[in-house]
Amino acid sequence: MKKQNNYVFEIIFLPILIIIFLIISITIYNIHITKKQLENQIKNKQIEFFEREKKSVYNKVQYLNSAIKIENNKIESKIKEQLKEKINISIKISKNIFKENKNLSKKEITKILIKSLSLLTYNKNRGYYFLVNNSSNKNINLNNFDISIEDKKNIKKEKISFIKYNSYKANNQSKKFLRIVAVTYFEPLDIFIGTGEYVEDTINELKNEFIMKIGENSDLDKYIFIYDVHNINGGKNFSTMIVNNNRKDLIGKAISDDVTDSKGNYYRKEALKLLREKGEGFVKYWYKKAGEKEHKEKYTYFFLNKQWNWIIACGFYSDDLTPEIEKLNKESIDYLEALIKNSLFWGLIFSIVMIFISTIIFYKIQRRIGKDKKRLIQSQENLKKAQKISKIGSWSYDFSTNEIIFSDEIYEILEIDKNIKKPSYKLFLSFVYRDDKNRVNDVFEKLIKEKLSYEIVHRLVVKKKIKWVNNQSEVFIEKNNTIVIGTLQDITEKYEKDKKIEEQAQLLFNQSKMAAMGEMIENIAHQWRQPLSAISTSASGLKLENEFQLLDAKKLEEGLDNILNNTKYLSNTIEDFRMYFVKDKVKTRCNIKTVYENTIKLLKPKFDSLEIEIIENCEDLYCVTLENELIQCLMNIFNNAYDTLVKNNVSKKLIFVNIFSKYDNVVISITDNAGGINDNIIQKVFEPYFTTKHRSQGTGIGLYMTQEIVTKHLEGFIKVKNEDIEFDGIKYKGANFMISLPLEIS
């Protein structure tokens, strides 16, 4: 009952506690993440705010500076346009007066004209007309303006000419000012009529208009202020405040740089230094905001406009960001409150649901445990049966306790009672065959010391009978403890079957060798027939000539040389065939083309007797292989082709041999023109004892042994197919045998 209560806690309440813990952890994590996000958002907002505001005030100042630049560039054209208009008026008046007073003298008409033009003033009485006599170059109406001869020529050419010069003002005789004069030549009276304007007066009017426009623009007047600079190096009266809508009390007053902000910074000195060095830049200082008592941090962009000698500035307060930050904080607090409420609400709902689900699962698990227990017992029984059928027993060794556990099947293999004998390594070793004990013991000691897996086949002596077993193990590390799990399989029956198969394979190999020897003897007979006949003819000829006393020394020497040469040929033939029967011991590096040529040399007399033509296309390629066994394989294939060509009575007997490389292999391709192999039996040609010849002529093991040697001894593969070939314009069909061997990699 106690165990059941533990299960109730683990299945029902433990998940709920885990869920509550996870909900609290996730909520705390979300609060932490939200705070981090808020901090990052505030930082990003601050960066964004400062970048935005800096860009805004910079654009405002540069807008004003650009407007000043545009207006300043238009001053001269504006003055000329105005003066041109005034001159045109004077020309009309002059023409009218001259027309109306033709009966009078030029002098009298000129006086009337002077009187009329003197009444016309403009630009707050700054603008007036003057007349200059062409012949005397004297001013007629008290103006001290002189016209040079060169200027007179230009004026007469042009309808209206403009002349720039510096002169004193009537109210300021200490300094000369730039003046633009428009002059025209009135030929009827031989006089020059002119009017002019001081550039500075027009600039001052533009400045006043510009200041009025700033005041009218609600977007520009906020935080914009302008100094009219007297001394860029500073001082008590270095400038006059001309624009400041937030501090209208300062407009028109002299500005000193000897003042500090609430933090004690000489911010105007800093601004002037910046303007002298760079002409523009931002300055941070503490200043009172309009309508507030406290000083706030302010960033102001100052720019020196050298054309009008103005300092144009615009700034912003860092606390302008406060409403956005407060809004962001409020949104975050609202989000966190909602998050906590939702987490608690859904945590409670989820816990109730989990209690209900866990209760159902608990009772289902109880039922399933009961079923699984039955299945486990059944599985253990099935495992025991399976081990009994396969004769595989299992064992385990614990390094920490040195304890060995045997399964029931190991007791069955050892044929002992598990209730009498306690499992131990010593007990197991007592059953090991005496010649295998040292080997088994060495493996077990290495297992203990090095903790490495192993597999070993050895013998046991059980009730005076030999049993062959496969003993293998795997090492597992669990919770810092090393355990070896092993199996012991009785392979006696399999071992004996394999031994019989091996004996049968050896028998087949021997049969194949004997068959090959028979074919070799036949080949020897083919090669010896002609030289033996030659020896016999020479010997009988010498004997006959000797009997008739016709034998001389020269004939004797020729006959004996012939016998010796043929004897040497027979000896070389024996040596060639003897080398073939020498069993290969180790693999050697050999040229596959040379191996093929050695094979053909053994078969040539036999092939020549049937006029079999061999068409070769062979490359010099090298392998590390067993040369004589490869020769045996090639001879089996060539003999098979020979027999098929004889059997099918092919008129023109051909064998095509190609040796080439493909991928990493040397390929030996041998194709005859005997018509091919029947499709129904082509896949059976490598089976043992399968033959298409009469029982008296074939054993059916040649091609089988060829496949065995190629795949198992030479580590290659062999395949057969029917192939269509063309030679000398004639198409043939035949069997193609292809052997692939690993190419030597240099």
List the SSEs and their pairings.
Elements: H1 2-100, H2 106-118, E1 129-133, H3 149-157, E2 161-169, E3 172-186, E4 191-198, H4 199-216, H5 218-221, E5 224-229, E6 239-244, E7 254-255, H6 267-278, E8 280-288, E9 295-305, E10 310-317, H7 322-390, E11 392-398, E12 403-406, H8 408-414, H9 425-429, H10 437-450, E13 454-462, E14 465-478, E15 481-490, H11 492-547, H12 553-581, E16 588-591, H13 592-609, E17 613-618, E18 622-625, H14 627-647, E19 654-662, E20 665-672, H15 702-713, E21 717-727, E22 730-742
Parallel strand pairs: 17-19
Antiparallel strand pairs: 1-4, 2-3, 3-4, 5-6, 5-10, 6-7, 8-9, 9-10, 11-12, 11-15, 13-14, 14-15, 16-18, 19-20, 20-22, 21-22
Unreliable sequence segments:
1-5, 694-700
**Helical amount:** 40-55%
What's the number of extended β-strand segments? 22
* Mass-distribution shape: elongated
Radius of gyration based on Cα positions: 62 Å
- Span between termini: 77 Å
- Mean pLDDT, nearest integer? 79
**In order across it, which strands form the biggest sheet?**
7-6-5-10-9-8
Can you summarize the main beta sheet? 6 strands, antiparallel
Strand content: 15-25%
